[in-house]
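User:
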Amino acid sequence: MAGMQRTIVGLMVAAALLATLASGHADTASVHLTKDNFQSELEGSSYFVMFYAPWCDYCKKLAPTWATLAKARNGDPDGVVKIGRVDCTTDGDLCTQHDVTGYPMLKLFRKDGGADGATKYRGARDLAQFNAFLDEQLAPAAGDGPAKGADRDGEDGAQEDGGQADAPPAPVSPLTELTEDTFAKHVSSGKHFVKFYAPWCGHCTKLAPTWEELARSLEHERDIRVSKIDCTQYRPICTDFEVKGYPTLLWIEDGKKIEKYTGPRTHADLKQYVARMAGGLKEDGAQGAEPKGEGTLEGGAERDDNRSVVVQLSEGDFAHAIAKGVTVVKFYAPWCGHCMRLAPTWEQLAEKLTARDGVTIAKVDCTVDANKELCGEQEVNGYPTVFLYRDGEKVTEYFGHRSLDDLHEFVMQHLQDNGPHDEL
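Assistant: Predicted structure:
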């Protein structure tokens, strides 16, 4: 009986081994990379690497396709990329080093980019998509990249612009397609919302009609431009702007990156973000002074800042405003989520203290060019930052909870104690 049990166990182990071999993880087509050869292999060639675990069902499902890709790519003597694999159960440190947080994870390492410049693959897991990804990513390095003209723009138009005009010089769409020849000049002045994308990226394709709609809805805003740039064609520009995934949406002012947009990608959310960053839109009637712009941004489109009892300060009147009594100032950025959440509470705090002499509740928009130096001088390192001033001197920064009761107690504590102190 014992011998029969051992035989059954042996057959089960053999079956498991055969299943593992059948899964493709033990294939010889892809290069088995380990901590011992990983760096040297990457120095000799670009590599498309699958980080996997043998027990992972998704890895097993992908294995035959990966082996087929490896046979085609690794068997080409003139190939510009090799296909490799890393077993994270035996080389865990290597996988940790490359931020592998799930299986399988696919990354492209360029020969000239080093291990730190890997591009994570996020597309469909089939041969056609793998080959399209590799060809587009590595074509410039191979010297046979797609022409920077009608062919590429035509393909992009089919995915992103509903198959509109093929030629970039005079597009029908208000959405500007940027190139290496036009990018720097285009963004050198004014406010720009730019989509950095790759044609093979599924999320980019999904966003394309919304991005087009955003451009159309803002085409009459003279000071705001919506554009896009294909990172598979103009990679150096995308590298300069630290683009590490697609799509990346950046707010750029006068040639400088101001903020990466990470919110929802609906038309309403994107347009609201543009309004916040631009200080209001003409079509929304937000052409007045900065105080009105901030009220609309933080409190919602319905809010009329004329009713606000929070004092909007700027570089020109800041010193005078804090010269007497206690002044509590919120330094903020309109695009900051925490600032938006604090806004109604800040209004309530001001209303609650409006009848009390000697105290002022104020705010400063640090994204306004005229205020940037002021925020730097006041050592504002994040948003929102709340400082309390007494008779022109900074007393303390508020680090507590941002509820109305907590903020009110903080202010009252400092009103009752007119002596200087650094504790809350």
